[in-house]
Predict the structure of DNA sliding clamp PCNA.
Amino acid sequence: MFEARLEESAVLKKILDSVRDLVQEANWDCNDDGIVMQSMDSSHISLVCFMVRASSFEVYQCERNVSLGVKIDSLAKVLKCAASDDSVTLKADENEPNTMDILFESKKNDRISDFQLKLMVIDQEMLGIPESDYTSTVEMSSAEFRRIMGDLSTMGDSVTIEINKGGASFSTKGDIGSGNICLQKSASVDKPKDGVKITMVEPVKSTFSLKFLNIFAKAAALSDTVVLSMSEEYPIRIEFAIDKDVGYVRYYLAPKIEGQES
Amino acid sequence: MFEARLEESAVLKKILDSVRDLVQEANWDCNDDGIVMQSMDSSHISLVCFMVRASSFEVYQCERNVSLGVKIDSLAKVLKCAASDDSVTLKADENEPNTMDILFESKKNDRISDFQLKLMVIDQEMLGIPESDYTSTVEMSSAEFRRIMGDLSTMGDSVTIEINKGGASFSTKGDIGSGNICLQKSASVDKPKDGVKITMVEPVKSTFSLKFLNIFAKAAALSDTVVLSMSEEYPIRIEFAIDKDVGYVRYYLAPKIEGQES
Amino acid sequence: MFEARLEESAVLKKILDSVRDLVQEANWDCNDDGIVMQSMDSSHISLVCFMVRASSFEVYQCERNVSLGVKIDSLAKVLKCAASDDSVTLKADENEPNTMDILFESKKNDRISDFQLKLMVIDQEMLGIPESDYTSTVEMSSAEFRRIMGDLSTMGDSVTIEINKGGASFSTKGDIGSGNICLQKSASVDKPKDGVKITMVEPVKSTFSLKFLNIFAKAAALSDTVVLSMSEEYPIRIEFAIDKDVGYVRYYLAPKIEGQES
């Protein structure tokens, strides 16, 4: 029996919210390390993955590796039935994972809900994730990132992100004009939530679809900060770490080529 | 002259909100006891009624019984023009009730609004309400009731409600799976707002349309608690009492027969 | 170079919000006194104008009078990219005003945004504003004004506003009935925010389109109070003064003639 119990359902709700606009169904691969999902979005342009580490569960038992074929929207509907501070337990039969049992328990133990969710067989290979030694990264407030992506979308379809030693800039161009938002590197690098922290081997500048970045930015609910990792002509990686080493949600998106339409 | 004055318009606003999704027009029967409305919903499936007792009005004068044919939505529009702490006075000519005069007065008396609402002649018999000695009742938080009805609606069309000595359970089934929310009976029965109070002669279990229960649940705005009264193969009664013996809003809904579609 | 710097972008955001539902594009006339815009709404029924005085800018430099042809919606989109407490600087070339440069600076100076907005050539004559010695004015809470206009709209298409020595009244009539909201003149005239202040040579009573008054009422965000100025058979003037002599937004609307449809 696969069994995993989280103290609060809120984390799982937020993870589902951060992937459900991109992915309809995907395998959740459960093994000793924890639960991992990775999938192309349904238009096959971006890649999204998340990990929740085994150590972050109150109970985690996984005798055999198992892939659970989850319909994201259905699981999100079930999770909606939990109060944010309910505990949540996921259970499945490792040999024949046709259904997932989901149990919610209220803190005061006066409300117990159990759901059975049908699972699917999803024929999906684990993708080789395009990791690399990124030449530049910027860590910044996730709320600020979300705000900037939303603001620039009112003007253009794509954003050019530039990281250099002075800071990070985000610029766009559209029918009504053009704009550029420039964030200065913080003097003190201690509090990336309120500032901007740059790690750089060499400056980098690439252009991305604002439509996707706006979807990714919703994961700001998961984390106070976001880390953008870039290399020239390479997909950007956008990572939202989840509280206290619980895990992460990561998005990957290839840059637009000059002259190419979104 | 029929005249009834409420100290705060808020109560009447909430009563209208709790019936306007079900009833378009209905007679308000005014007599010595107070004002009563009862009506089938427009699809003739459920029954809704409310009572506001004469004693809960600041002024209540009703020389002759009179039926006021009210278009609910129109009266709700008029009530929208009152601040929640305005007093409201309803007046009508008992002999020829063609219009209702509605007067709002602000607490500081610096704003007086008077409206004339056209009344209708509604040919509607007073229905025999299917009261009985219910075999089981559960009193619980109205907010929790509303939340559960909403949550289960994401998964199914109907809910099976079961009351037994341990508590009350609400279960549904749909394309994506099935679910069951179980509320334990409270040890102390003093605070039904935070707990669940069961009164039971024998256990009961019936299935109802979630569409209607969701509409009824909006009346949670009227009262902190709700009382569900059930007997086997008998319509459920869902009652929201209004503050301090002011009155109540009650809904009645027949159970679904096995194999029947909603 | 024309240059004008406001300490907080919020004022400009609110001004744009108060005109964007009426005007799509208009000349902003900049001279020694400040910035003035006036324009008929796009249906050519009402007139809207605003003024921001030169003295209310931190920096204001205008060597030559210049008309900037602004697409209101586009400028509003750009302003959306500023935090409310960012400073905003507008710049344009007085000789060839093809674009407006807009600069936002955060209080902590860690975020600098610059936008270029394309300007238009708008062939628009400065209109003679129908000012007069109004025979009656009422100053009242702008939130109350907004609420009353909204409330009466649920019932009718037009409102009859009457000012007399006792106060101001607002009445409407529709299919479902009729209504009248009467505000008493305040005993103390010190706090028009909480009361109603009347200045009157002779009583006046005229009828106006609620559709337009509801649009004007959104400018309540700019000011705690609103002043309605009326003369018999003359357009009403509705003025929202902006904080501390910054300027104003004014609307003008002709009364409906008896028997005329809106």
